[in-house]
Amino acid sequence: MHLYGTQTVNDKGHLVVGGCDAVELAREFGTPLYVMDEAFIRQNARAYVQAFRERWDRFAVAYAAKAFFCTAMAALAHQEGLHLDVASGGEIATALAAGVPAERLFFHGNNKSPDELALAVASGVGRIVVDNLYELSLLRAEAARQGARPRIYLRLTPGVSAHTHHYITTGQLDSKFGIPIETGDALAAVREALRTPEVELVGLHAHIGSQIFDLNSFRVAAARMMAFCAAVRRETGWTCSELDLGGGLGVRYTAEDDPRPIEELVAVLTEAVAEQAAALDLPLPRLVVEPGRSIVGEAGVTLYTVGAIKEIPGVRTYLAVDGGMNDNPRPALYQARYEVVVANRMRAERVRRVTVAGRACESGDILVHDADVAADVEPGDVLAVLVTGAYNYSMASTYNRFPRPAVVFVQDGRAEVVVRRETWDDVRAHDVLPPRLRPAGAAEEAAATGAGPDAVPVERG
User: Where does the Orn/DAP/Arg decarboxylase 2 N-terminal domain lie (predicted)?
Assistant: First the structure.
């Protein structure tokens, strides 16, 4: 069993995260519960910043908000000197609400809406990463309307296919993201951006995928981007002063995973860019990276309460929990694998093989296949799924109208709610029941009881 960050086991045999007993966290805040190890998040953020400081003069580490985001996370990242990679108007608004200066935001997305581009220009977002020429035309019009001149990157696809799940590879030719280099479209896009006076082209961007262990993929991508920078300089005279190489460093979900250290990734990127700059007679650019999973992934634990245990002799044992694909859709989306422990039986031998099932009305709602847990696990125990800090809370849904879980930050024995648990009222808060669909007498009853115009009457038996 592998423990992450500040995780330990106390004298009660309970899992401890950030100095907090996981069983007590479940009792105090309820389950399902996302627990984020704040000290570990900060440690990973600092590792990126320090590694670049030792190797590169001009750089930016932009935390990829899509991995896990709320106002507390935005504020934490900003405290640690990180920029933010945001991909929607909602993420921009969250960052600004947390006090992050707009100029420290990199705005991504393959189909940004006119309203989102208007927000980005009006708030002064630092870099808008333009994904296609249609977006460039929208941005041009919006910049002219506001009398602004936003700084932009062009997102390119360098033709590098990272060795990861095909749903999370993005650098190959066949991708919904970016402008391909090998077809000549990227060079044409650079020319178009340079003759668009309403924007200032300052850099280029590429992101080859996510959950990557083979660092050579990053090396190849960096080399191809630098080669393109040289070609652009020859053809147009424009010099790329900022190069954004995205994120994608993998983390350890199971014993079979072999992630590389943050420092090793930074060494590979800086060496590749420096070598190519020397060989191609290019100035060293400002280097930007956008890590997400490698900052928060291993720092997260999701706690569940064990419910029904269903044994099918000769087939399998199902262990049901009070969450599932609503709070962690990754296993259903792309067969993601996790390790689990019984948080209140950490010293027990893990000899009982179970399939951890969620409670959504889907046969595919399976969190973990063939997990080994304590032999005496029983209903009411606390099950902990490890390494759930990335793409769990951020992809959660209210399918079956299950409310989304709370999120707590833990550090030095202190637990703080940073996202409150949703309620049934929250789930239906945006519902509107037209008067024509209300049961007879409902309007009169609502008026008599003082309920609002959208109140739904309670059926009484």
Answer: 48-296
Helices 262-280 and 38-53: crossing angle in degrees, nearest 10, is 20
Q: What is the pLDDT of residues 389-404, one digit of tens each?
A: 999 999 999 999 999 9
- Considering the domain architecture, whether residues 386 and 237 belong to the same structural domain is answered as no
> Looking at residue 1, what is its pLDDT?
77
Query: Does 127 carry a binding-site annotation?
Result: no
What percent of the chain is predicted at pLDDT more than 70? 93
Q: How far is residue 34 from each of residues 134, 319, 337, 418, 449, measured CA to CA in Å?
A: 39, 20, 17, 10, 38
Name which of 402, 404, 394, 409 is nearest 301 in CA terms: 409
Cis upstream peptide for 331 (omega within 30°): no
52 and 195: one domain? yes
Q: Are residues 13 and 90 in the same domain?
A: no
Is 444 among the domain residues? Answer: no
17 and 54 belong to one structural domain: no
Across the range 373-385, mean pLDDT stands at 97
Q: Which of 70, 229, 240, 361 is catalytic?
A: 361
Residues 72 and 200 placed together within one structural domain of the fold: yes
For the chain, the straight-line distance linking the first and the last C-alpha, in angstroms and rounded, comes to 52
CATH of the domain at 13: 2.40.37.10
Q: Is 436 annotated as a binding residue?
A: no
Structural domain of residue 27, as residue ranges?
Answer: 8-36+298-422
- The response to whether 63 counts as a known ligand-binding position is no
70 annotated active-site: no
Regarding predicted confidence, which is higher, 440 or 35?
35
**Out of 94-98, 301-305, 404-408, 451-455, least confident range:** 451-455
**Tokens standing for residue 424:** 């049934």
* 461 annotated binding-site participant: no
The predicted structure's pLDDT at residue 253 = 96
- Whether residue 300 is annotated as binding a ligand: the answer is no
